[in-house]
């Protein structure tokens, strides 16, 4: 059995230096001439790959954050329009005994439902896009249940967070003013 131990960086740079010297000799290069070859270390290549992967992860995270923010603002605007259009209905419900928390719950459920439907569509598009990339570009892709759960949870959170303000606005309408609204 052959055991390979981790080599120290100094030892690797010595080996790399010896390889450069040998190649310069074999290529008959004079001391004033530049190398006509490259000697690369796999550890350096892995470090560059890890750095670029980290950069891409941060970049994609930033894009996803902006997308979630824009989606949340869209949900809030849709819910604010819904509250405005249904002001008389809210006033009627309050006049016949609905409590503020009932109205709040109704509109929060609507906002979360809207966000979850969008989240499910986003998950399906993501799975389809990942499968398409794997087929067309011959790349390996990995979709984990944890990533799907995080996406689903994020869309629920966005629905609650951005749906709360319109739901609160609806819950605290004055029933008399709401019934008069046209």
What descriptive keywords fit this protein?
6 helices; 182 residues; 77% helix; mainly alpha
Overview of the molecule:
The protein has 182 residues and is mainly α. It has one domain. The chain contains six helices and no strands. It has helices spanning 9-26, 42-85, 87-95, 100-136, 145-171, 175-180. It starts with 8 loop residues before the first helix and ends with a helix.
SSE class? mainly alpha
- Tertiary shape: rod-shaped
How many strands appear in the DSSP assignment? 0
Helical run tally = 6
Poorly predicted tracts of residues:
none
What is the string of SSEs from the N terminus onward? HHHHHH
What is the CA-based Rg, rounded? 30 Å
Rounded average pLDDT: 88
| Percentage of β-strand residues | under 5%
Distance between the termini: 86 Å
Helix-residue proportion? over 70%
How many domains would you count in the coordinates?
Answer: 1
Major β-sheet annotation: none
Topology:
Blueprint (H helix, E strand, L loop, with lengths): L8 H18 L15 H44 L1 H9 L4 H37 L8 H27 L3 H6 L2
Helix pairs in contact: 2-4, 2-5, 4-5
Brief summary of the model shown:
By secondary structure, the chain is mainly α. It has 6 helices and no strands. It has one domain (9-33, 44-180).
